[in-house]
UniProtKB/TrEMBL annotation:
A GO cellular component annotation in the UniProt record: nucleoplasm
InterPro entries: 6-blade_b-propeller_TolB-like, Filamin/ABP280_repeat-like, Filamin/ABP280_rpt, Ig-like_fold, Ig_E-set, TRIM45/56/19-like, Znf-RING_euk, Znf_B-box
Gene Ontology MF annotations: ubiquitin protein ligase activity; zinc ion binding
Source species of the chain: Actinia tenebrosa
Keyword Plastid: no
Name recorded for this polypeptide: Tripartite motif-containing protein 2-like
Domain B box-type: from-to ranges: 101-149
Pfam families: Filamin, zf-RING_UBOX
The UniProt record lists the keyword Zinc-finger: yes
Domain spans labelled RING-type: 18-63
Filamin repeat residue intervals: 353-429
Length: 724
């Protein structure tokens, strides 16, 4: 039997082998990533690297960037552990074979030495050194059975039957068979993976062939359409030319006939008339001759181009491009070059996302079949979280999931069964009580860049303002009443587009001003108020402001100040009191057809409701004149109220915009106190951000929340703040 110590010795040599030169270490240096190399090898690697000027080098194994002290590889950290092992190996090699001459051969280490024990698995006698190894090395200790030679005395030997010996052999064989069975299962799994991969490739080829056929058919169809168009044009040219030619030929033939008749009259006159008649006709004949001779030729008088030619000229660029309509490429994603990116913390209850970057072995972004990307997100108990994988662009895939627990989630990503470079990763989930952090402010205000007044003027948001976040594409919309427009931003504050809320074709459009709006999936519901008669129009617009339909026109003066959509797609309209126009305060709930369901309870004569929001089956309404928030059920029945005027936690001074924050909390704008308060749905204070002393935010007026928990606060002066 092969020596049991040889694998152990080989493992030791493997530990002492440089992965660059494949030789035993010479002056080993250990990098901060814990990979070790010979000094000469890592120095040569550093010189050949792309960034010696930066005094950095990428580890040849894991590619982690390592700082090289003073650009001198010899100053990298030495490995005293490896040096000790090298000394041990050198000492072992230095044993003198002559000292062992004459001693029997150990079956394990194959050295001449005094034999002290018998190993069943090694099938022979072993020396004292190998005996110690059998006692200390776990694998040898568990799998090898050793008997000391000193115990081989008749009274110490246990005699066993052949059946018992066979049973021992059988058990050992069963253990080996279990390992082989597991190996067989692994082979079967690999076979399934291979067949699945081949089926995927066959499907890819089939789809590629279909695409080639579609492209060719499209080109043929385009060519046929072009042929039809060119033939129609040629036929038109021919028809026009034929008509013009026919017209000029008619004129020429008419001229010929006229001349023939005149010549015939002349001949008749000259042949048959008397001399006196000819003399009398002299002047008329000369005049006629002169008239005919002075007539211009007919052809030059016609608007026909005599030198025109008709040809079909091919477009050489199109002809050349058709020679290279497309190409077939084989894309192989390399898991070791692919990675997880853009990971961030998110508050519990909100959607988090990150990006998977797929690259080939040349580190180039490449497309990867979504079916081969396996993403698993697990909580600490091992429960998998539902996630969504979408392709953003070539080589970039966004993964989103909802963080339902305040725990650390583990993310594992495999491509075709192999883990990508930095998988697994852990993502922490923030507690709801975690302090809010100000991220940025966008939308310029009047104090900034005053020298660019014209450009600045178009960027300002003026008048009454509202803010809302689209739950589908996470776009932010801000309503500017004075300019009668809606401005759209992305989630980091970059301007995307803007459009007018009031169509100039609407009757008396100059008197209509927007008062409130709300996203409804990929539509905008907006209310327009007529400044003279107080009549309100509620409309639906698409994402670009195009009018879809008018869903309601009031028959009495009303002033909708805020709107919200429920989970059942019902529309709640909040109308504050307006004594000047004799408008009383009310809140009404309408269905999708804008049919009145009911009017909310508990609205008193002196109440002034301004903002309304819906969260988890309840309506929350801010009453600015009483500095309180009233809560109604989904049908508008009054439940309870909380809040009072003041500066303490849970108190308000001009309570304004509201929005839900998770299923059990709301955010409320405390305008004059210059803060936003996070409250439980029963009114208990949780935390607040900004405030008098922060100087970050003044006069928060309206508020909205993104799917990932980012908070967008609209100040009364038009600034928008992002908090997380």
């Amino acid at each position: 039997m092969a020596s049991a110590l040889k694998p152990f010795a080989d493992d030791l040599e493997d530990q002492l082998t440089c992965s660059i030169c494949q030789e035993i270490f010479t002056d080993p240096k250990t990098l901060s990533c814990l990979h070790s190399f010979c000094l000469k090898c890592i120095a040569d690697w550093y010189v050949k690297s792309e960034s010696p000027v930066l005094k950095r080098v990428n580890c040849p194994i894991c590619r982690v960037r390592i700082d090289v002290p003073d650009g001198d590889a010899s100053k990298l950290r030495s490995s005293f552990h490896l040096k000790s092992l090298l000394q041990l190996l050198e000492a072992a090699r230095a044993k003198s074979d002559q000292e062992q001459a004459g001693l029997p051969l150990c079956i394990s280490c194959e050295e001449h030495s005094k034999l002290v024990a018998f190993c069943l698995q090694c099938d022979g006698l072993i020396c004292g050194v190998c005996l110690d190894s059998h006692k200390t090395i776990k694998q040898l200790r568990q799998e090898h059975h050793v008997h000391l030679v000193a115990n081989f005395k008749k009274e110490n030997v246990d005699v066993i039957s052949i059946e018992e010996a066979a049973e021992v052999t059988k058990q050992a064989a069963k253990r080996d068979m279990e390992k082989l069975n597991q190996l067989e299962e692994n082979y079967k799994e690999e076979l399934v993976q291979s067949k699945t991969n081949m089926a995927r490739i066959e499907n890819d080829v089939h789809l590629a062939k279909l695409k080639v056929g579609d492209v060719v058919e499209s080109i043929i169809e385009t060519a046929r359409e072009h042929e039809t168009a060119m033939n129609e044009k040629l036929n038109g040219i021919l028809s026009d030319r034929q008509k013009a030619s026919q017209d000029e030929q008619k004129d020429i033939e008419a001229g010929i006939n006229e001349l023939a008749e005149f010549l015939l009259r002349c001949e008749t006159l000259l042949d048959k008339s008397a001399a006196s008649e000819i003399a009398v006709s002299k002047d008329d004949l000369e005049l006629s001759f002169h008239s005919y001779l002075e007539r211009p030729s007919i052809l030059p008088s016609k608007p026909i181009q005599r030198n025109v030619t008709v040809r079909f000229v091919t477009n050489q660029e199109v002809t050349q491009s058709l020679q290279n309509v497309g190409r077939v490429v084989e894309i192989v994603s390399d898991p070791m070059h692919s990675s997880i990116a853009s990971m961030k913390e998110v508050r519990c209850g909100f959607v988090n996302d990150f990006v998977i970057i797929t690259r080939n072995s040349r580190d180039e972004l490449c497309h990867t079949d979504k079916g081969s990307i396996d993403v698993r997100i697990k909580d600490p108990e091992g429960n998998e979280v539902e996630r969504r994988l979408t392709e953003q662009s070539t080589g970039k895939y966004r993964v989103s999931y909802r963080a339902e627990k305040t725990v650390k989630y583990e993310v594992q990503v495999n491509i075709s069964g192999q883990p990508i470079r930095n998988s697994p990763q852990n993502i922490n989930t923030l507690d709801m009580n975690t302090e809010f952090v100000h991220v940025k402010t966008f939308v310029r205000v009047e104090e900034e860049e005053k020298e660019e007044e014209e450009e600045e003027e178009s960027s300002l948001l003026k008048g009454f303002k509202k803010i809302s976040v689209n739950g589908v594409n996470q776009e932010i919309a801000v309503l500017d009443q004075t300019n009668r427009c809606i401005k759209i931003f992305d989630v980091v504050g970059n301007s995307l587009r803007s459009f007018n809320c009031v169509s100039p074709e609407m009757e008396e459009s100059k008197h209509l001003f927007p008062t409130a709006f709300v996203w409804n999936e990929n539509k905008i519901v907006i209310s327009l108020y007529h400044q003279q008669n107080g009549i309100c129009v509620i409309q639906e617009l698409d994402l670009n402001g195009t009018l879809l339909n008018t869903i309601h026109t009031s028959d009495e003066p009303i002033f909708p100040f805020s709107l919200c959509i429920t989970e059942e797609q019902n529309l709640a309209v909040c109308c504050p009191r307006d004594d000047e126009h004799h408008i009383k305060a009310w809140i009404k709930l309408f269905n999708k057809q804008y049919e009145l369901i009911r009017e909310f309870d508990g609205i008193e004569e002196d109440d002034n409701p301004v903002f309304i929001t819906y969260n988890n089956g309840k309506h929350f309404v801010s009453f600015v004149n009483k500095n309180l928030i009233r809560v109604f059920d989904k049908n508008g029945a009054f439940l309870y109220e909380f809040g009072q005027k003041g500066e303490l936690d849970g108190q308000f001074d001009t309570v304004a915009g509201l929005t839900g924050y998770g299923p059990d909390m709301i955010l409320a704008c405390d305008c004059v106190n210059h803060r936003v308060q996070l409250l439980a749905t029963r009114g208990e204070f949780i935390t607040s951000f900004s405030g008098y002393d922060s100087g970050v935010m003044e006069g928060p007026w309206d508020i909205a929340v993104g799917a990932d928990g980012k908070v967008f606060v609209l100040q009364y002066d038009g600034k928008v703040h992002i908090w997380r």
